[in-house]
Amino acid sequence: MIASGARRLAIAAGLLLQGAAGAADDDLIAQGKYLIHAGGCITCHTEDADDAVPLAGGYALQSPFGTFYAPNITPDKETGIGNWSDEDFLRAFYEGTNPEGDAYFPAFPYTAYSGVRQDELLAMKAYLFSLEPVRKEIPEHDLPAFMSSRLAARAWQLSYFEPARFEPDTTNSSAWNRGAYLVRHLGHCGECHTPRGTLGALLREKELTGNPEGADGESIPNITGDRKDGIGKWSLSDIEYFLDIGMLPDGDFTGGSMSDVIEDNTSHLTPEDRMAIATYLKSLLPAD
Length: 288
Known about the structure:
Cytochrome Bc1 Complex, Chain D, domain 2; mainly alpha; 2 domains; two-stranded antiparallel ribbon; 11 helices
């Protein structure tokens, strides 16, 4: 009887542990889903087609350097990232390299993602690996001859890429720091809203002041606190509401690529995170 009772207790304990592990996995996946939205992954990794499967890749990003096709990041083992280890995933974001060690072109914004926390990146991976694998071959990038080799991407990294984790600024509030983390790194707003030099490197001294030659030929606006050319006249609530539903302070609605960002990204954030973004953006001084 004693042995039988001990066996039942062991089984019950095992079931409790399994349940706790399952709940922990579910929490990690839910966190990863939130971060995938916050990171803007869906907009770029989903083909622009009515029947497109989210995150299965194929989106054609037009740039002054050619056309880049976003990869399949579902867990398909042949055409997606199903064979990637945790280390492979982290290296992509922190070093800008694929599992074979080849350099990525900065169309993949690892320049911003290198500041994202490791635990959050692994949560993103957990979510991606919880999805149904989708087999989808992606076209090769359509680039000029001088960029046809990954050696060109490696040379670019050696000249312009300095990976760095986000360091909170203790002189500012927690809301400001949360906004800075989302804007600079996870949300990588500067990748679109900051102008670039001749070889595509961001002009850091003009961060978020707008880019007249954005991807797909779109002019991207200034989102600093400049009261004339930026969003200095917007209230915190104006910015939070815009990020939620896309409505401008004058009652009009945004269009172009920002409408996709709002639908796939910022509308999925908590009001607190949207307000943190607003707090950070409002603090940015106009460029000289």
